[in-house]
Design brief:
The protein is an alpha+beta fold and about 400 residues long. Helix content is about 25%, strand content about 25%. It has 9 helices and 19 strands. Strands 1, 2, 3, 4, 5, 6, 7, 8, 9 and 19 form a 10-stranded mixed sheet that branches. It has a 6-stranded mixed barrel with strand order 10-11-12-13-16-17, surrounded by 4 helices. Helix 7 crosses helix 9.
Length: about 400
């Protein structure tokens, strides 16, 4: 059948399938944080300092993790908080062959007021549910996942993020994998959800700002109709070749372009923002790629930047979500309209961009003194950082009810 004759019911098959999965009724057991059992370690490990913990070749995790299994026939089992350690998988597990794996990344912050917080966890949990639906993994109620993260932090937070270390953080990694041990391209009927806490290096202030290299002509990170908007492992592995080559050339990340016009999408695994003066009226505009074609991730830091900029920068600054191209960046630099740029994400937080290399040309972007961000970058980083670390009381900063040690 010719494309023009495609029946209406066959349009947007992926969206329709996800919607059916969302509304499907089931008698299987739901994910229930209230059923969490505790099996605490009898041999807690020494807590390293931040520099030691982030300088080795292995990620350092805290003493415990949360695990919960799922089977299509019975639903979610009771979650367990237990000592951190290896997982047991059969060599034929679905996730090892068919990329049935999704995850999230967020941070827990030890505030300057002594309290432990996580930043907008509801957004991460909702996004993980969406990612699970996209790759045919089991769904769950997002608030239950948030409760499990809080429970793990309540146990390990006091010792691994002590009050004596204000301004420090831990990385939270909930992961969902298909574990059914049967080869064949099919939706897995068994899965494992686990949550771990780890150290992560600070990446938001590279010397001289972040330097980007545009993606090669023969490589894209995501495409319309794909899964660039979902946080699945299959989005990351194929990007490593270009990233490794860029780092060999002295750059930090890839600025991923899309289409014949070279639309700017993401900086590595972070969302990308440009601040410039608009041609014509020369008014200040902050522009970032839109979500409507599902090319990019709906980043929690991205969303937060947009929210605070629209609320606090005033009417003299236009905050825009639209498609824009690398040629527009080249033109803005040539005309002296390029003011600043930054990447936004969990790992890099809000990181000033100082240079973009594109097809033999250098786009040099102004940054602040000592390699810090420009005026808007610095303001946004301060506003969001204040919420994360408790200098500003805000609903986005969810306080963890810590257990006494």
């Amino acid at each position: 059948m010719a494309p023009s004759a495609t029946p209406q019911q066959d349009v947007d098959l992926t969206a329709a399938a996800i919607q059916r999965k969302e509304v499907a009724t089931t008698t299987a057991a739901p994910l229930a944080a209230s059923q969490l059992s505790y099996n605490l370690t009898t041999t807690p490990r020494p807590v390293p300092d931040e520099i030691t913990a982030t300088s080795g070749d292995e990620t350092v995790a805290t003493d415990h993790m949360v695990t919960v299994t799922w089977r299509a026939s019975t639903g979610w089992a009771s979650p367990e908080l237990k000592p951190y350690g290896p997982l047991s998988l059969m060599p034929t597990a679905s996730c090892l062959h068919y990329a049935t794996e999704c995850f999230e990344g967020l941070k827990a912050f030890r505030g300057h007021d002594g309290r432990l917080r996580i930043f907008r966890p509801d957004r991460n949990c909702a996004r993980m549910r969406m990612s699970a639906a996209r790759i045919s993994l089991p769904l769950f109620d997002a608030p239950e996942l948030e409760k499990l993260m809080l429970a793990l932090l309540a146990v390990d937070g006091p010792r691994w993020l002590p009050r004596e270390r204000p301004g420090s953080f831990l990385y939270i990694r909930p992961t969902l994998i298909g574990t059914q041990s049967q080869l064949g391209v099919q939706a897995p009927r068994e899965a494992l959800l686990y949550i771990i806490l780890t150290f992560m290096p600070r990446m938001d202030a590279p010397l001289g700002g972040m330097r980007l290299h545009t993606s090669p002509d023969d490589m894209v990170r995501a495409w319309v109709g794909g899964f660039g908007y979902a946080k699945v492992g299959a989005n990351y592995g194929p990007s490593l070749m270009a990233t490794q080559d860029a780092r060999r050339r002295g750059f930090h990340q890839i600025l991923w372009l899309y289409g014949q016009q070279g639309e700017c999408t993401e900086a590595g695994a972070s969302n990308f923002f440009v601040v410039w003066q608009r041609p014509g009226d020369r008014e200040t505009e902050i522009v970032t790629a839109p979500l409507d074609d599902k090319l990019i991730l709906d980043g929690v830091t991205r969303r937060s930047c947009l929210d605070v900029m629209r609320e606090r920068l005033g009417s003299g600054v236009h905050v825009t979500e639209r498609k824009y191209t690398i040629d527009e960046l080249l033109e803005a630099e040539a005309e002296g309209r390029l003011l600043e740029s930054f990447a936004a994400g969990t790992a890099y937080f809000i990181c000033p961009v100082s240079q973009i290399h594109h097809r033999g040309k250098e786009i040099n972007i102004p940054i602040g003194p000592d390699g810090q961000g420009g005026e808007i970058t610095t303001k946004v980083k301060q506003w969001i950082g204040d919420i994360m670390y408790g200098r500003e009381q805000h609903e986005w900063g969810v306080v963890v009810p810590e257990k006494e040690q």
